[in-house]
Each structure stands twice: as C-alpha cells, then as structure tokens.
Design brief:
single chain, alpha+beta, 5-stranded antiparallel β-sheet, 2 helices, 5 strands, CYTH_domain, CYTH domain-containing protein
C-alpha cells in the first residue's frame, strides 16, 4: 500500500480561527513537530528541495497544483549537498520560485 497525503486548505475569519483553535485544543492530541526548509522551483511549483534536520529530499509532483491527485517521486540525499543541487537546477533553467521554513 502506498502512503497517501491528504491536504485541505481553507480561508477562515479571525473569529472562526479562534473557534477552531479551541475545538482542536479540546479534542486533538499533539504528536510532534516538524521542521524543514523547502525551496520551490519554477515549472508550476512541481519541483522542490526539502531540507530536514537529518536529510534532504528532491521532490517532484506530477500534474498541477490542485489536481485531484498527483504522483510524488521523492529522492533522499545528504543535506550538505542541497546548495549544490540548487545551483544545478538553476543552471538547468529552474529558478527559485519561493522558499518557506
């Protein structure tokens, strides 16, 4: 069985955000945090480098953002090489689109 990632995005008002925080504080259980730095490259944001505390990943998602489903290919590599990979992608015509942390 493949892992399936499900993501739901919504815009909410400040009052609705407060209501949701209260709801989840009462009913949810904290299971941990996740830290990474992700760099998205031009070409519809389908190619990215994700650097986590212990490893780095080159991620490609087929299809387009907001498609009903997309295949994801993920290749792990040493995070010390992330800067070099970013330079290679830039030289190949994949400029940085956005970074988030």
């Amino acid at each position: 069985m493949k892992n399936v990632e499900v993501e739901i995005s919504s815009f909410v008002s400040p009052a609705e955000w407060d209501r949701l925080r209260i709801f989840f504080r009462r009913r949810a259980r904290f299971v941990g945090s996740h830290r990474d730095a992700t760099t998205y490259f031009e070409k519809n944001g389908r190619l990215r480098i994700r650097v986590e505390p212990d490893a780095a990943y080159l991620v490609f998602k087929s299809g387009f953002m907001h498609s009903p489903h997309r295949e994801e290919i993920e290749i792990s590599f040493s995070k010390k090489n992330a800067g070099q990979l970013e330079r290679v992608l830039d030289k190949m015509g994949f400029p940085v689109l956005i970074r988030w942390f």
